[in-house]
Design goal:
By secondary structure, the protein is an alpha/beta fold. It has three helices and eight strands; from the N terminus they run βαβββαβαβββ. Strands 1-2-3-4 form a four-stranded mixed beta sheet. A four-stranded mixed beta sheet has the order 5-6-7-8. Helix 1 packs parallel to helix 2 and helix 2 packs antiparallel against helix 3. It is globular, with a radius of gyration of 18 Å.
Length: 182
């Protein structure tokens, strides 16, 4: 797997680059066709932040963690991703039962509602716009992808109805789906 390590406002040493590459490559044991990973490291005050985005097997997986040491932050985010990937494989054996999937491109690039905490003057404005590919998924597959991304919502084309739908996590830890009215 090709691992790209970047620094956001921080210089990445060879030792940090090698460590991140080694740790992230171990995740490929869960999904044999992981193709690419991007590791972004930054420092905010005394807190070291590491974000990892993996692509392959028709999925997109993202995780982040913070710690007072960059190596610890790398370990934490890789451990989180590994647990999430194992849980995904346990719950969704459909992926290995011969279901036909397009493995050449990610199923879904999620729209993230990220926002800088210091942007209180920008309240009510659209601050970020993302475009992403949508492919048909069953509701169960959409839940699995949302769990992998650790998001509270997920936009997908419902394979059963052909409509674009929004899957969301409810306060009671169950899921809801928003569908357009015809």
């Amino acid at each position: 797997m090709q691992v790209q390590v970047r620094g956001k406002g921080v210089v990445i040493t060879d030792a940090l680059r090698d460590y991140a590459d080694k740790r992230v490559n171990k995740l490929s044991k869960h999904f044999a066709t992981l193709q690419a990973a991007t590791v972004t490291q930054s420092i905010q005050g005394k807190v070291h932040r590491v974000e990892v985005q993996l692509e392959g097997d028709g999925i997109l997986l993202r995780g982040e963690d913070r710690a007072e040491d960059m190596y610890v932050a790398i370990d934490h985010v890789v451990d989180k991703l590994e647990r999430r990937m194992s849980k995904y494989k346990e719950r969704h054996k459909w992926h290995h039962r011969g279901a036909h999937h397009d493995h050449d491109s990610p199923r879904h690039m999620p729209a993230e509602n990220e926002r800088d905490e210091d942007d209180s003057d920008d309240e009510g404005k659209v601050l970020r716009r993302k475009r992403f590919a949508i492919k048909p998924l069953t509701e169960l597959e959409a839940v699995a992808h949302m769990e992998l991304l650790s998001h509270d919502f997920f936009v997908f084309e419902n394979a059963d109805t052909g409509q674009v739908s929004v899957l969301y996590r409810r306060a009671d830890k169950n899921y809801g789906i928003l569908e357009p009215e015809r």
